[in-house]
Amino acid sequence: MTDALDRIAAALERLAPPPAAAPDFGAADAFLWRESPDVLQPVPRVARVDLDLLKAIGRVRDILLDNTLHFARGLPANNALLWGARGMGKSSLVKAVHAEAGRQGLPLTLVEIGREDLGSIGRLLTLLRRAPDRRFILFCDDLSFSHDDTHYKALKAVLDGGIEGRPENVIFYATSNRRHLMPRDMIENERATAIQPGEAVEEKVSLSDRFGLWLGFHPCSQDEYLDMIRGYCAAYGVTVPGDRLVAEAIEWQATRGARSGRVAWQFFLDLAAREGRTI
Question: Do the bridges between strand 80-84 and strand 39-42 make them parallel or antiparallel, or are there none, so unpaired?
Fold first, then answer.
């Protein structure tokens, strides 16, 4: 009987994926987490916008920056959920405050995990826990859950920590278009059809309550939209007459049917190209 159990255990060990090798965290200040096989892939150059170029989000920018600098200095800090309007700089802000911490000489590593890889987050935390001399922002972009999605249970290991507790050197930032991480019609539907409506969605909806910071992003005004474009022009040395800039920028946003930081950046890229300027 013992021999049989030993053979079964050996077979399971062969089938189990090997533990991820400890990466060289000095190779980069940002990494991508991938599973099957587990690996932290260095990102030599992060695609980001300077903090000073993020307009119309001054209050949430300052809150997240302070929280990030506190964490980088070893002080108490909160996990943060950045939610709201599309294209208003949620993910850009996370990357920008990470860069600002580095500019101030505070060692901080950004680790991005995809929503589809959240099931492996426990293994990632184990890996990061083994580097107590470094501090990590664990970042998930565009986080949301459907009615049959169970990845939110794995996420609780980061937000609540369980028995072992969240590693002291890890903080979690997420962006989402939804404040409660679920579509409103799904919330209402489950409440309407459940035997216990109050309990039907509480477990998923309450996940957002576990973030210490809720930072809301709202659609920008036309003046804010134009200020964004003027800021890009000044930063990259693109000079065009003011009247022309305004007219073309408004026409661009009209064709897109929306105003946002993303639309402003897309217009600026087109403008810079037409002016023969590289970015």
Answer: unpaired
Q: CA 103 to CA 219: how far, in whole Å?
A: 29
Q: What's 275's DSSP letter?
A: T
Q: Which residues contact 216 (CB under 8 A, 6 or more apart)?
A: 60, 83, 84, 179
How does DSSP classify residue 182?
Answer: S
Tens-place pLDDT, residues 116-172: 888 888 899 999 999 999 999 999 998 877 666 666 777 776 777 666 667 899 999
Q: Please state, in angstroms and rounded to a whole number, the distance separating the CA atoms of residues 174 and 253.
A: 28
Per the listing, tokens 């903090």 go with 51
Could you tell me which residues come within 8 angstroms of residue 39 by beta carbon, excluding any fewer than 6 positions away? Answer: 20, 23, 33
Q: Where are the beta strands (DSSP E) in the chain?
A: 30-34, 39-42, 80-84, 109-113, 136-140, 170-176, 213-217
Token digits for 204?
A: 């998923």
Q: What are the φ/ψ torsions at residue 81 (nearest 5 degrees)?
A: -110, 120
Mean pLDDT for the chain? 84
In total, the chain counts a number of residues equal to 279
**94 vs 217: CA distance, rounded Å:** 13
Task: Give residue for tokens 């903080």.
Answer: 171
Task: Give buried/exposed letters for 203-233 (b at 16+ CB in 10 A, else e).
Answer: ebbebbeebeeebebeebeeebbbebbbbbb
Which token pair is 268?
């600026």
> Scanning the structure block, which residue is given the tokens 């600098």?
69
Q: Phi and psi for 124 in degrees, rounded to 5? A: -65, -40
Contact between residue 80 and residue 212 where contact means Cβ atoms under 8 Å apart? yes
Judged on CB neighbours under 10 Å (0-12, 13-18, 19+), 141 is middle
Strand, coil or helix: what is 228?
A: helix
